[in-house]
């Protein structure tokens, strides 16, 4: 329910002796004449919608974004539906500025409760580009992009992006994106990609050349679905002379053809430092529709946030994954297996530091689970409150998890539980988290590995982490 505070100033008294007395009486009148107005009790309807600033954009795609405004029954619904319409227009990618103005209805067809809503838009140029920085997976990268937005007038876009990371990663992406009309906001994306990455903790480097088709839609306001097909030529090679034999024997080129389904719903009030809300992400991938790679992989991430007191938030996270081969003729490589450990998952361990190793190279496993419990608070004594200090949070954490090789078809339920709970890893610690805009955060933690296996690679003491998604 929306609330408006309405000021009802009293009449100015006569024969006031000086400005100070007048000011005092007006302040007293202001404090004692405030009442709440329920926006749901204000009858309102939208008689007319104006769109100012359209040039290349077609009318039909815009009308689909704003049509629901005419169904508003009161002033609160007008505000909410106008905001939703603005979000829909912004998601088209046609406009760089969108202003919303609400006024009383005018003209011969105006009604008593009628309103007139105007969207003032400014379209993107036909060709845009720029250089920016990205943060993720514990590394920073420079991104160079070139875009041609709204080519045919209905949100179509061609974009070319190239990025170079601080850990010798590089990515090239040529994409065509086409949004469609409809309440589910469907969109189609076709991409040609090339990605190079190095994994020193596993002793290999990887070059992927891919063709990808992605169809996305919303079944509810915040419930997003993506269905992908991907064909990838992968080249795995050793990273150094010390790479273990178990990794060397998987070197070479492979062809992977897979379909992937992703579902996500994000109800958090903030992506970086949420106070309340939940996050659910589910991913399922079936590879083997051609090529010599075949597996079925499932991953899930759950997160919930509770505001205990003012600015004190308890966060609980759980992630798990399982991959299994689908036939003896098709293989599962080291690039397809599951890994945990590192500043973005179980802190106090090296990246991919948990699980089986061969000559210090992490080999991964086919199943894992990990959980994190966190307590975020403001900085002690609140320095910089309301300003620079709001970018920081102190951080207490407890992380736990395990990896193991399972065969769900043969193992009993008791065997599965026993494998996953045997030799559980535990770490705890404290540190400081820094917000980096609205896209990532930086953590500086002092970690204490408490329980670990002799084959694990621990990282006691100070550990840095930078990324978007943390456990």
TrEMBL record:
Keywords: Membrane, Mitochondrion, Mitochondrion outer membrane, Transmembrane, Transmembrane beta strand. GO terms for cellular component: mitochondrial outer membrane. Gene3D superfamilies: membrane protein fhac: a member of the omp85/tpsb transporter family. Residues 150-470 form the Bacterial surface antigen (D15) domain. Pfam families: Omp85. The keyword Transmembrane applies. The keyword Secreted does not apply. It is found in: Mitochondrion outer membrane. It is a multi-pass membrane protein. GO terms for biological process: mitochondrial respiratory chain complex assembly; protein insertion into mitochondrial outer membrane. InterPro entries: Bac_surfAg_D15, D15-like. Belongs to the SAM50/omp85 family. This is Bacterial surface antigen (D15) domain-containing protein. It comes from Dendroctonus ponderosae (Mountain pine beetle). The lineage of its organism: Eukaryota, Metazoa, Ecdysozoa, Arthropoda, Hexapoda.
């Amino acid at each position: 329910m929306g609330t408006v505070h309405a000021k009802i100033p009293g009449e100015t008294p006569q024969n006031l002796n000086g400005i100070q007395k007048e000011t005092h009486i007006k302040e007293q009148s202001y404090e004692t004449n405030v009442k709440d107005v329920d926006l749901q009790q204000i009858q309102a309807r939208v008689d007319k919608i104006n769109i100012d600033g359209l040039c290349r954009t077609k009318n039909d795609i815009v009308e689909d974004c704003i049509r629901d405004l005419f169904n508003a029954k009161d002033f609160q619904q007008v505000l909410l539906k106008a905001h939703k319409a603005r979000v829909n227009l912004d998601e088209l990618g046609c406009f760089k500025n969108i202003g919303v103005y609400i006024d009383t209805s005018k003209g011969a067809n105006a009604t008593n409760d009628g309103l007139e809503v105007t969207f003032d838009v400014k379209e993107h140029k036909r060709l845009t580009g720029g250089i920016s920085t990205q943060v993720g997976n514990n590394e920073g990268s420079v991104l160079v992009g070139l875009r041609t937005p709204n080519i045919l007038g209905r949100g179509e876009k061609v974009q070319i992006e190239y990025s170079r990371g601080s850990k010798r990663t590089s990515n090239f992406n040529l994409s065509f994106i086409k949004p469609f009309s409809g309440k589910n906001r469907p969109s189609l994306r076709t991409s040609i990609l090339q990605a190079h990455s190095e994994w020193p903790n596993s002793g290999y480097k990887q070059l992927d050349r891919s063709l990808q088709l992605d169809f996305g839609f919303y079944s509810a306001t915040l419930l997003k679905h993506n269905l992908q097909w991907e064909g990838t030529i992968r080249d795995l090679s050793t990273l150094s002379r010390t790479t273990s034999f178990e990794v060397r024997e998987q070197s070479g080129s492979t062809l992977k053809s897979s379909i992937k389904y992703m579902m996500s719903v994000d109800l958090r009030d903030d992506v970086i430092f949420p106070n309340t809300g939940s996050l659910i992400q589910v991913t399922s991938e079936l590879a083997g529709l051609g090529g010599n790679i075949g597996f079925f992989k499932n991953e899930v991430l759950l997160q919930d946030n509770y505001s205990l007191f003012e600015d004190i938030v308890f966060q609980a996270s759980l992630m798990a994954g399982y991959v299994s081969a689908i036939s003896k003729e098709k293989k599962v490589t080291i690039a397809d297996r599951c890994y945990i450990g590192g500043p973005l998952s179980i802190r106090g361990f090296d990246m991919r530091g948990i699980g089986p190793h061969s000559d210090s190279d992490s080999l991964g496993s086919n199943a894992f689970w990990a959980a994190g419990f966190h307590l975020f608070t403001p900085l002690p004594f609140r320095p910089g409150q309301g300003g620079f200090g709001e970018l920081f949070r102190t951080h207490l954490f407890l992380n736990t998890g395990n990896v193991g090789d399972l065969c769900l078809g043969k193992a009993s339920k008791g065997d599965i539980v026993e494998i996953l709970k045997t030799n559980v890893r535990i770490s705890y610690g404290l540190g400081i988290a820094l917000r980096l805009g609205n896209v990532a955060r930086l953590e500086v933690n002092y970690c204490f590995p408490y329980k670990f296996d002799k084959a694990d690679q621990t990282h006691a003491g100070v550990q840095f982490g930078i990324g978007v998604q943390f456990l």
